[in-house]
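Checked the freezer inventory, then went back to the computational side. Two predictions to log before the end of the day. The first one is the construct we discussed on Monday; recording sequence and tokens without edits.
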Amino acid sequence: MNVQGRTVAITGATGGIGRELCSMLVEQGASVLALCRSQAPLGTTHLPCDLSTVEGCDDAASRLAAAAPDVLIHLAGLQYAGPAEGQDAASLAALLHVNLYAPMRLSQAVLPHFRKSTGALVFVSSSFGAIPFPHFSAYSATKAGIQAYAEALRRELPPEVVPVIHIAPRGVDTAMNGTAAREIMKLSGSRMDSPRAVAGHILQALRRETPETYIGFPESLFVRLNALLPRVVDRALRKNVPAARALFTNP
């Protein structure tokens, strides 16, 4: 899909990847609707929203339906790194709303328009959705949910009218990944990509209307291994659990 002259809506536009992607889209002649709480990136139109509650998602869905974009990119996300029992209820609810409910609700809002005039849905999840990681349990679950939702929509919608694109980056060097998250990824040998590099992959997948993209090697290989031999991956990831848990128990 050529983005020139098209209206592209992006959630999470003020994040590390979001700002880079907004800049690239504006450079290529797209009109960008930035769905975010704070001030929108330069050259975009701000559509204020709070995706951490049901009410906020529903309000954003109404605004988005009225705006009638040509492309919707789901990029907003929250992360919790730590023992599963350590995440408080409010944090868990916000994570579920931003990572899972919002993409579903906002997709519902634009689909009637997309079915009539064509439009692309882009879901940016994570390799943790296909390789669920210890100490990222809720985050992994929401990303797996988005992967499944995108796949189901791809089978439901005519691809020539509404292409559905799913992209799963590995770790990204953004503020969302705090010290604990970075240490856990280091223990597993996971690498991190720059926000600009990931934004470039997203734009390329949109241009080519690539249904499924996993960014990075060997992560893309482990996605396939986890699908075929999950117990092998269980053993590999369990080796790092004691050291990772110590990050949250040591003073």
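The second is the one RB wanted added to the comparison set:
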Amino acid sequence: MNKKMTFEEALTKLSEIVSRMESGNEPLETSLKLFEEGSALAAFCYDKLQNAEQKIKQITEYKETGGDEDA
């Protein structure tokens, strides 16, 4: 997995993997590889969302405490 991948790219790729696996047309070995890649992509997306949530909390708290609006 490319670490410079955006959240949106990772989510699209993860959706494609889920569709392939749900089709039931992939051999076991391929399904295992897809599952491994999908797990890594899900973790990547989760980390991106956690970072975004933390940033939003910091900005919100800063604004609520009277921080500079240009920050």
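For RB: The radius of gyration is 18 Å. The chain has a mean pLDDT of 91. Let me know if you want it refolded.
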